[in-house]
Give the backbone structure.
Amino acid sequence: MLPNQEAFFIFVTMEKVAFIINPFSAKKNYQPFINELKKKVENPLYYISESILGTDEFIQKHFSDTDIFVAIGGDGTISTVAQNLINTEKILAIFPAGSGNGFSNETQFSKNLDELLEKLNQRKSRKIDTFTVNGRLSINVSGTGFDGKVVKEFEKTSRGFKNYIKVSLKTFFSYKPIKLKFFDEKYQNYNGKYLMINIANTRQFGNNAYIAPMASKSDGLVDMVLVKKFPLTYSALFAFRMFTKKLKDDDYVTYLPVSEIEFKVNTKNWHLDGEFNRIKSPIHIKVQPSSLNILI
């Protein structure tokens, strides 16, 4: 194939594709991605987002003439883009550039632009579930308690996996468990104090830390993961199981598969897909089955 033919082929198949870049992801080192994209795609449509509002406005402006929106960033960026595509036929694609990249890992997107462009050429997609926390969208894992506090403190750092571990360890020893109370009688025997409560649409937080190894993003359910504060002697086993996909029900961990549930917690500190949020109880979790179209 001649060079000009190849350029024409790429240009034609990249029509109706928009790239949305979070410049604050990946330590703000996004320029190499743009440079490589311009080498491989003629006149790509891309937007460097400075805010959620800016992303929303860009998507709405190009909604009618774009089939695939590519989010370049972490889970928070992906969720922001996805919010505009829920219950439509528009397709979400991802180039991971975050700290943990949990959702990217779970949907088989890698940091390889050639692989992404090949997927974009083929344009195959499938529907997956999402869920809401008091009406706010989540696509991966959201939670409160210990990890909500960790995310709040983590956002004060320069991010990165090492800082996440440092903040987690510092928070663990000082954190007091939160109180959980269910409204539905069949769950009230689970009322009590917990280190953290996670709502998992997929299996992992990110960085291959599998908080819900049996979770599925296409079964109409989320796994509600209740974790009691455990002694230091259990921490190594907990970490080993989490990073080897072997966490399971035991004296400290409980899994409740649900499609919708309501409860109260005595904290407002939540993270939604790794982004800190303040959410007041009562909490209403609701799965949105087959609501998001993902490139495969």
